[in-house]
Amino acid sequence: MPRPVIGVAMQTLPAKPGGDLPTCWIMGRRYVQALCSVGAIPWLIPLLPQDPETMNDLFDRLDGVFLTGGVDVDPSCYGETRHPKCGATDPDRDAIEILLLQHAMKTGKPLLAVCRGIQILNVACGGTLYQDVAAQVPAAMKHDYFPTLEQPSRNYLAHEIAVKSGTRLGSILGESIALVNSMHHQAIKDLAPNLLPNAYAPDGIIEGVESKTSQFLLAVQWHPEELAETQPGMKRLFTSFIDACAA
Q1: Mean pLDDT, rounded, for 107-135
Q2: 235 secondary structure, DSSP code
Q3: Active-site residue among 159, 225, 226, 245?
Q4: What number is the average pLDDT over the span 58-79?
Q5: Is 86 a catalytic residue?
Q6: Could you count the other beta carbons within 10 Å of the beta carbon of residue 78?
Q7: What domains sit in the chain, N to C, each tagged with a CATH number?
Q8: Is 207 one of the annotated active-site residues of the chain?
């Protein structure tokens, strides 16, 4: 069976002052390695919102879409003004990922999204975000366990999530309570109407969503690519996605 081709949008790296490094597109290696490990061919997608013909021709060649973590989603995408705690954004990436999502949902191609990916999915479907959970949800627990010199690991299990039974995510993970890593400061606020929540943090923050239809469309707020080598359930997120793409 041919290996499925999975589209992964890149992110803009601004030019360095002085001109020694021009503007570039980048993407973390771990996402690509996780896809390769389950038999996929990752296709890193350039950010060319001004060239829709090229983008559409590229999208047509994909078997599935994987949305990764990264910078904040620009609040203009969901009709809000910028909060002081909103971080760096990438309008070109927002535009291309929204086009990718629209293409996947229109054609029924499988989609897996992590961290920022669940956020841009919710926005593309008509939802909104907390621009900074700590500032806008006073009762929220800590979610921004970003790597530091003291704690450099990206696989630190920060908190539990409660997984809803009867959902695609519940079937894949095979457990009602799971431990996850947590490296985000934004999160779903108003859930898009066509998405089904399937996991929650102890403070009520939505940690996972999926399609209400039979389409394989699954998104989580944590980083399973960092846990796939040690947790079978997290590995199954990728294998089940690739199986759907191959089909």
Answers
A1: 98
A2: H
A3: 225
A4: 98
A5: no
A6: 20
A7: 5-246 (3.40.50.880)
A8: no
Q: Phi and psi of 210, rounded to 5°?
A: -150, 170
| CA distance linking residue 181 with residue 188, whole number of Å | 17
Is residue 145 within 8 Å of residue 156, measured between CB atoms? yes
Question: Is 115 part of the annotated catalytic residue set?
Answer: yes
- In degrees, rounded to 5, the angle at the alpha carbon of residue 32 between the alpha carbons of residues 31 and 38 is 95
Residue 186 has pLDDT above 80, yes or no: yes
Structure-block tokens of residue 133: 């959970």
Identity of the amino acid at 131:
Q
Helix/strand/coil for 69: coil
* CA-closest candidate to residue 210, choices 224, 192, 228, 226: 192
Task: Tell me 163's DSSP state.
Answer: E
Distance of CA 8 to the CA centre of its chain: 10
Of the listed 143, 159, 184, 223, which one is catalytic? 223
Output phi, psi for 234, to 5 deg: -70, -35
